[in-house]
Write a structure and sequence with these properties.
The complex is a heterodimer of chains A (115) and B (114). Chain A contains no helices and eleven strands. With 115 residues, chain A is mainly beta. Chain B is built from no helices and eleven strands.
């Protein structure tokens, strides 16, 4: 158990819909990272939040957005869903996320299926 | 453009033998590399890392080798155990405006046969 929690574990929805994935970081961790793992793909970095502020963006579609709340939990919002958005979505947390590497601890992931 | 490549999707070895997982990268700005291990229905867990100023790092049965000139790293597991069966991801740290994001390969599925 990494200490990072993600809800829900599974999500099945239809094209065109909107969903929200939730992540609670380890206690004391200030950074939250979101990654997407599609079929036959490695984990793709989506976005990084540090202490409530966006730090970096990766391959995140405009239909996707995220935020980190004052209690440091984070939500990833996916809208106008397409079949290709079906994937595993992982969040990871780390103590810092600044100039030196701090180990990222991953949650168990949310499996999104778009029908 | 895939910056971290794991060209072998799968590897099968016998228990007690050596497992060698390979990884190549294209971005010479990467200066820190990691291996993550992932079991089904779980998130990736950190296994071992290496800084670009080193060419070897060892932790128990796990050793990572880095060849900077070839932009190649490998993970050696000796001796391999059935519990090592998992997907192994190679990752590199990419620093961007104060963010330490991980760039992952596609993974290699290791099966250790009893």
């Amino acid at each position: 158990d990494s200490g990072v929690t993600q809800t829900p574990k599974h999500l099945i929805t239809a094209t065109g819909q909107r969903v929200t994935l939730r992540c609670s970081p380890r206690s004391g961790d200030l950074s939250v990272y979101w990654y997407q793992q599609s079929l036959d793909q490695g984990l793709q970095f989506l976005i990084h939040y540090y202490n409530g502020e966006e730090r970096a963006k990766g391959n995140i579609l405009e239909r996707f957005s995220a935020q980190q709340f004052p209690d440091l939990h984070s939500e990833l919002n996916l809208s106008s869903l397409e079949l290709g958005d079906s994937a595993l979505y992982f969040c990871a947390s780390s103590v810092d996320g600044g100039e030196t590497y701090n180990e990222q601890f991953f949650g168990p992931g949310t499996r999104l299926t778009v029908l | 453009d895939q910056q971290v490549k794991q060209n072998s999707p799968s590897l099968s070895v016998q228990e007690g033998r050596i497992s060698i997982l390979n990884c190549d990268y294209t971005n010479s700005m990467f200066d820190y590399f990691l291996w993550y291990k992932k079991y089904p229905a779980e998130g990736p867990t950190f296994l071992i890392s290496i800084s670009s100023i080193k060419d070897k790092n060892e932790d128990g049965r796990f050793t990572v080798f880095l060849n900077k000139s070839a932009k190649h790293l490998s993970l050696h597991i000796v001796p391999s155990q059935p519990g090592d069966s998992a997907v192994y991801f190679c990752a590199a740290i990419s620093t961007q405006g104060g963010s330490e994001k991980l760039v992952f390969g596609k993974g290699t599925k290791l099966t250790v046969n009893p």
